[in-house]
């Protein structure tokens, strides 16, 4: 009779078994929770990527025809004013159509910034190779080889920060611009958004500010002077050109003649 009675030691195994089963159940639940979180993260990333692609394509497509009210780079200038000077300085900017821009202005920026503009698809591979070769041969830093299309992409859609992610976005927007816009549209946008001085953007505002004339009346010499300041318009002044700016202006005028002669020969 005493042998059949359940002792305390006899009652412990079921408790240990139940405890072990609970642990196993909890362990089995964790993989499911982890899988759900991983799936949820993938869905969020996928939807974010799809949204970015769709919105960027739509944005580039819309500005194929519509004038740009502002650019990311202009907004960044306002941000700098607020952070550095705690003030707001208005930007001189006026969009104009292609027919109101002198052909001299287009010829000057192409001769100055991107002579292979009509031949490449957004990226000047020869200039990129030359920049890399110069750097590998002892250059202190990698020289820029940005095309007009790349400059439009980063000034319209991106901030001036430097990172691999930003460079990847620049490539993406450059390809979109080249696919969706015409070459003439790219030059028109570039001339309208280029910085020509402190808070001075666009060929119309620059023409009025420096020469007191509309952009459609720019002469070759005046267009070349404005193009000569584009590498660094905050340091290179069209109003008070240094000897370097004057030399650069003369070089651009020679390149404009050379490119014009080459196009005339190609047309024959």
Can you give a write-up of this model?
α5 packs across α7 (183-193). With 268 residues, the protein is an all-alpha fold. The protein has a three-stranded mixed sheet with strand order 1-3-2, covered by helices on one side. It starts with 7 loop residues before the first helix and ends with a helix. Residues 1-12 have low confidence and may be disordered. The protein contains ten helices and three strands.
Topology overview:
Blueprint: H1 8-62, H2 72-85, E1 92-93, H3 103-113, H4 125-136, H5 148-157, H6 164-180, H7 183-193, E2 195-197, E3 200-201, H8 203-211, H9 220-228, H10 243-267
Parallel strand pairs: 1-3
Antiparallel strand pairs: 2-3
Helix pairs in contact: 1-6, 3-9, 3-10, 5-6, 5-7, 9-10
Brief summary of the model shown:
With 268 residues, the chain is mainly α.
């Amino acid at each position: 009779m005493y042998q059949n009675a359940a002792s305390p030691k006899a009652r412990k195994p079921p408790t240990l078994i139940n405890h072990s089963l609970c642990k196993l159940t909890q362990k089995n639940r964790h993989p499911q929770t982890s899988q759900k979180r991983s799936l949820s993260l993938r869905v969020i990333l996928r939807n974010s990527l799809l949204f970015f692609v769709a919105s960027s394509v739509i944005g580039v497509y819309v500005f194929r025809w519509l004038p740009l009210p502002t650019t990311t780079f202009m907004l960044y200038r306002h941000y700098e004013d607020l952070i550095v000077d705690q003030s707001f300085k208005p930007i001189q900017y006026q969009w104009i159509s292609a027919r109101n821009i002198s052909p001299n202005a287009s010829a000057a920026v192409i001769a100055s910034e991107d002579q292979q503009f009509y031949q490449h698809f957004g990226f000047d591979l020869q200039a990129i190779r030359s920049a890399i070769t110069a750097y590998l041969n002892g250059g202190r830093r990698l020289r820029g080889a940005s095309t007009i299309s790349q400059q439009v992409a980063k000034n319209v859609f991106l901030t001036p920060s430097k990172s691999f992610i930003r460079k990847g976005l620049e490539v993406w927007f450059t390809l979109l611009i080249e696919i969706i816009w015409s070459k003439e549209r790219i030059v028109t946008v570039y001339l309208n958004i280029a910085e020509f001085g402190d808070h001075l953007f666009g060929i119309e505002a620059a023409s009025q500010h420096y020469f007191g004339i509309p952009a459609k009346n720019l002469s070759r010499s005046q267009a070349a002077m404005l193009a000569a300041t584009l590498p660094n318009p905050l340091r290179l002044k069209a109003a008070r050109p240094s000897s370097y700016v004057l030399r650069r202006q003369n070089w651009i005028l020679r390149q404009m003649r050379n490119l014009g002669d080459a196009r005339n020969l190609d047309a024959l």
